[in-house]
Amino acid sequence: MSTRREPHVDARREYCTACGDHTPHEVTIEQANRHTDATSEENRKYAKVPRRRSECKRCGTVDEETLV
Ligand SMILES: [Zn+2]
After folding, report:
1. What gap in Å lies between CA 58 and CA 45, rounded to an integer?
2. Which of 18, 50, 64, 68 has the fewest C-beta atoms lying within 10 Å of its C-beta?
3. Count of domains in the chain?
């Protein structure tokens, strides 16, 4: 039986410009809760935009996109 799953849940193949090939990437999405109606200045100070970070597992190049 060889149907067990590898624990690489966030590894996906994407195109890496440095490698010039589709390589396994570790993709992380940082999601921020943006409450536009928040009146607290503290919330504004810590307001973040969602970012998608993908790291090439072959060469280590990191790409960051802002998802706005
Ligand atoms: Zn690469």
Report:
1. 36
2. 68
3. 1
